[in-house]
Each structure stands twice: as structure tokens, then as C-alpha cells.
Amino acid sequence: MQRRLGLVFALLASLAMPGTPVHAQSACQLTGGFALLQSQIPDRVGTCTGSEIDRIELGEATQPTTTGRLVYHSVDGVVSFSDGTHTWVLDSNGQAQVRGVNERFPWEFNGDGLPLVGQPGPQINGPCPTSPVQVLAVENFYGSLVNQIGGQCVQTTTILSDPDADPHEFQPAASDVRSYQGAQLVIEDGLGYDDFSDKILGTLSTQPALVKAGDVLGLQVGANPHVWYSAGYVDQIRAAILAKLKALNPQASAYYDAQSAALDQEFATYHNLINQINSKFANTPVGATESIFVDMAYTTGLNLISPPEFMNAVAEGNDPSARDVAMFQNQITNHQIKVLVYNTQTVTGLTEQLKAMAQQNNIPIVGVSETMPLGAQTFQGWHANELQLLLQALQKATGTS
Fold first, then answer.
1. pTM for this predicted structure
2. Which of 45, 58, 181, 300 has the fewest CB atoms within 10 Å, counting from its CB?
3. Do 72 and 170 belong to one domain?
4. Last residue of a domain, which of 266, 288, 311?
5. 145-to-209, 264, 345 alpha-carbon distances in Å
């Protein structure tokens, strides 16, 4: 692994960062920062149960243990371990410090917008003054938004949440169909992304309230369905969710308003990163393996030059034309793109080939995902992490800071 920290902490970093995984070894072992953290809280971490997994495009390395996962994040160089209630983090001196999962230390990247340790946070997520609204969020990122707006005044079920699956190929099980029964509010994407949801809704005798992102945005089938990668679209969807919750549960309107106002503040890092990329790297040419990044490229002012037909074909599970493949390959080998954005959930032999070509040509790769990945706490934290990785990749590619 090639990771860089400041010269001041160079020696410490050599101890703190995970070591290179040895895939051929017969038994796993903890090395580097993972071993250092485990040595200080052995009963919490337990012992490793598998080799370290390094996913450079996602900016993380992880290793499973008997009690959870050790994680290294390249956005801040931090090694941590969580049991679901508390998180232990190595500080700059290599000492384990403990915090709650809903707060952050000053040296950690805080894309979630959570309060810092020792500082009071907003007075939210209190008891609901009424019965909570029963919500079905088809995609887990919409579930994150409604849970943050609704607090304890919603009870939410999600369907699409597997970080390793391609949502475009999802087929609902009987248990998924049953999830719709009793839902007072259903939140879905529309635009052909989750057609199964409308089919299930059509079988219900009592129709729940519905927030369909495509309809909220006034878009038609055929438009790019990945609307959650547009900051402006997300703001409109959040407003629609808030309005629908208040209509369904008017006695909790003030509660929902307070939750939503707090969420506005927690989106600060997300919006700041978008503005920073736009101001420093507008019109920088980048490539993407799939159309998921189209709206975010527009939002950040980047110039996405990958063949549109290529990106759409991959998104729809079709084979791109030979002409578009050759054009994309030339953009990589001729260094016409500065960064390659790679959809980690729509993976084909061809996208893997392009990823390998980018690596061979020293073009930074940034991974993005269709649904919230394992370990992500909030929608804004997930996207802020991707944006921070994108910013760092652009800085590396252009030799700027």
C-alpha cells in the first residue's frame, strides 16, 4: 500500500498504518496500525478471522475480527474499530482513544456532520410525541434521509442495501413484498430504477403515501435515474419527504422541522466539498465507467468526457460499441482524463479492464457506489467521503493542493 502522512508523523505512520496483506498465508495476522490498536484493546477487537482487504478506490482497508472490523481510512489516515456503540481510534501519538459512534474526534474526517467529542450536539432524535410513521424506503440511502428527518417519529424498513450487489439486477423476494404491507409511506426512486416497487404497490388494496424521486423532480423515464448524486435534487427530495411526513403525522410537525433543520447543518461538509471542487477544478476532464457519476460531475463542474453511450450501456447491462470502447481506452492511454470514477457495484470484465488501464497509466481511481456501503452511517457522510477522495485524486492528478 502506498499511503502518505506528514513528515512529522512519518515514523508513527509506519507503525500506525496497516501492512500489506499476505494473501498466500495460511493463517491471518494483524500488522501495522491494526496490530497496534488491537494490542491496546485486545478484548474488544478479538483476533483476526481473515486477511486484510485493501480497496484503494474506496480509500479504505479493512480486516475482519472475531468481534467486528478494523478499518483504515485514507481520507484522514485514521485506524479505528467499532462495536456498534463505541469506536476506538488511534490518535497522532498511536494511542487508542474511545468515543461514541455518533461523535467524532477533531483529527477525524467528519463528513457526517456529527458533533465533536465533548461538544454538545443539536437537541434532536428525542422521543416522538405521537405514534411513528411506518416507512418503507426502497433504497437504503433514502432510508438514511428519512431516518434523519424523522428521528423516533419514523420506523423504517429498506430493501436495496447490499453493497456488493447491482441494484439494476435486483429481483424482490416474498419477504420484500411483505415489507410493503402496513407501510404508511413508501419512498422510491422511479425512473426505471426500481420498477418492481410500483408493481408491488399495484397489488395492495390500500395504497400508502408515496414519494417517488423522479416525480418530485419532474423527470421522465429515460432520464438518468441516479438522482441522489445531484446536490440540488437531493435537497428537493429531502423537502418532499419532510412535507409528506408532516402531512401523515401533523402532530409531529414541529419535531420533523427541528430534525430537518439539524440535518441542514450536518450537510455542511458535503456542500463545502462540492464548492471546493467546483472552484478549484472546474472543467477538469474526468472519466466514469457508468452514468451514476453524470449528475455529480455536473454539480462539481467537472468535465465528464467518457462516451455517454458507453456509460449508459454499462448502466443498463448492455455491451458498449467497439467504437465507444476504443474511445474510452484512448482517453486513458493518452491521459486525456485526470481521474477515473469507478462504479463498484456495476462491475464487468470491461470496467475492470479500464480500471487496470488507469492504474497502469497512473491515473487516480475513485470508487462510487449505488447504495450506502458497509460502515457508512449517513447519506451525507457516504457522499462526503466520496467527494473527499475525489478532491484528493484531483489534487494528485494535477499536482495541486
1. 0.91
2. 181
3. no
4. 266
5. 17, 11, 21
CB neighbours of residue 231 within 10 Å:
19
pLDDT tens string 325-358: 999 999 999 999 999 999 998 889 999 999 999 9
Both 208 and 228 in one domain: the answer is yes
* Tally of domains within the chain: 3
Cell 501492512: give the residue. Answer: 19
Q: Residue 4 carries which DSSP code?
A: -
- Measure the CA–CA gap between 127 and 129, rounded to whole angstroms: 6
Instruction: Name the grid cell of 299.
Output: 454539480
Q: Residues 76, 201: one domain? A: no
pLDDT in tens, 36-91: 999 999 999 999 999 999 998 899 999 999 999 999 999 999 999 999 999 999 99
Cell reading at 265:
447543518
Print the domain residue range for 284: 278-390
CATH number of domain containing 165: 3.40.50.1980
Give 3-state DSSP helix, strand, coil % of the chain, rounded to 5.
45, 15, 40
